[in-house]
Amino acid sequence: MMTDTPRKPRYALSFTSGALLVREALVAAPLYLRVQDWAKVRELIEEDNLLQARTRSSGFRLAREVAQRLSVLTDAELELLIDATPTERGYLMWAAACRRYDLIGEFAEEVVRERYLVLAQTLDHNDFDSFIRGKALWHEEVANLKDTTLRKLRSTVFRMLFEAGLIADDGRINQAVLSSAAQGRPVRTTSASSRRAAPHDECHRSPQAGGAPVQLSSAASASSRWRA
């Protein structure tokens, strides 16, 4: 039952255009660093079908989506995305999704991170459904979701987590690992009260000798500290 409590700002729910979009990001990020204009980047991508979309309409949607997600990253983070390992690229693109979409970011912080902290080893669809039921009390657009739309949103979020290497195919929550080289690169930081993304505290520990990877406290660390 809906309450009379004033509604919070509406969630953007258009993230089903693609999952993590790492391949697409590696096309768009260098273009932006060259032209410094996301509208121009979209124009260049669509003009020459740089994302190799099958149709013009799907190419338009993909170009728009990848530009919107990458636009929440700083230039330094875009440079890191280009130079990083495939694993670190996954973390960055998960962080970008968390920044772009508050629903995803809140799921990462309130569910994925919390399950890790209480030593729960797995994440499943029931966790997402319970999270959505809670949000429906405050957000009419969530309460009014059709079952088919909810399933698609849930499937996309779990696919993102899997592609980012943050959960295994059996739902086990993985620890996130950043190399010391990546930790030495500047990323955006934020106050504790901010709602947008930045990597967890462990992502900014001092680089270790020999470039050894540094283990993060949880899978959700890749999003929670990169929320800005």
Provide an overview of this structure.
The chain is mainly alpha-helical and 228 residues long. It is built from 11 helices and 4 strands. It has helices at residues 22-35, 38-48, 56-70, 75-83, 86-100, 102-117, 125-136, 140-143, 147-163, 180-183, 221-224, and strands at residues 177-178, 197-198, 214-215, 226-227. The strands form 2 sheets. It has a two-stranded antiparallel ribbon with strand order 1-3. A two-stranded antiparallel ribbon has the order 2-4. Helix 5 (86-100) packs across helix 6. Residues 189-219 have low confidence and may be disordered.
In short, what is this structure?
The chain is 53% helix and 4% strand.
Instruction: Give the proportion of residues in helices.
Output: 40-55%
The computed structural class is mainly alpha
What is the rounded distance between the termini?
Answer: 33 Å
Note the run of SSEs as H and E. HHHHHHHHHEHEEHE
Largest sheet: 2 strands, antiparallel
> Based on DSSP secondary structure assignment, what is the total number of beta strands?
4
Could you tell me the radius of gyration in angstroms?
A: 18 Å
Anisotropy-based shape:
globular
The stretches of 5 or more residues where confidence is low (pLDDT under 50) are 189-219
* DSSP helical segment count: 11
Task: Give, in spatial order, the strands making up the sheet with the most strands.
Answer: 1-3
Beta-strand percentage range: under 5%
Mean pLDDT: 82
